[in-house]
């Protein structure tokens, strides 16, 4: 097992903020803890993806996020996909 190939999720909190500067006077804010390490944006909503990262042991490190996006697409019969993957 390679721990560097695990997919994990950061816990997050959603805040409802009352502020007259926003539509209907409400803003929704998603916050998550700061992650330590080298930040990488793996893919986005437009289909772009990062094929590799510098200093990676092998190409598998970059393939895992793309495989996860593909898995979610397949599991939802092509109707939903997890993308815009990023992290450390």
Describe this structure in words.
- With 88 residues, the protein is an alpha+beta fold.
- 18% of the residues lie in helices and 18% in strands.
- The chain has one helix and four strands; from the N terminus they run βββαβ.
- It has one helix spanning 60-75; strands at residues 13-18, 26-31, 40-41, 86-87.
- The strands form two sheets. Strands 1-2 form a two-stranded antiparallel ribbon.
- It is extended, with a radius of gyration of 16 Å.
- The two termini are 19 Å apart.
Q: Measured on Cα atoms, how large is the radius of gyration?
A: 16 Å
Number of strands: 4
**What's the rounded overall pLDDT mean?**
88
The description of the largest β-sheet is:
2 strands, antiparallel
Q: Biggest sheet, strands in spatial order?
A: 1-2
Order of helices and strands: EEEHE
Helix percentage: 10-25%
Low confidence ranges: none
Q: Calculate the terminal CA-CA distance, rounded to whole Å.
A: 19 Å
Number of discrete helical segments: 1
Structural class by SSE content? alpha+beta
What overall geometry do the principal axes of the alpha carbons give? extended
Strand content: 15-25%
């Amino acid at each position: 097992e390679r721990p560097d190939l695990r997919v994990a999720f950061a816990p997050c909190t959603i805040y409802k903020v009352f502020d007259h500067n926003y539509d209907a006077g409400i803003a929704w804010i998603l916050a998550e803890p700061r992650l330590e390490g080298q930040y990488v944006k793996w893919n986005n909503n437009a289909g772009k993806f990062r094929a590799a990262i510098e200093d990676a042991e092998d190409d598998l490190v970059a393939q895992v996020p793309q495989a996860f996006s593909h898995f979610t697409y397949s599991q939802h019969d092509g109707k939903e996909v997890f993308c815009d993957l990023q992290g450390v």
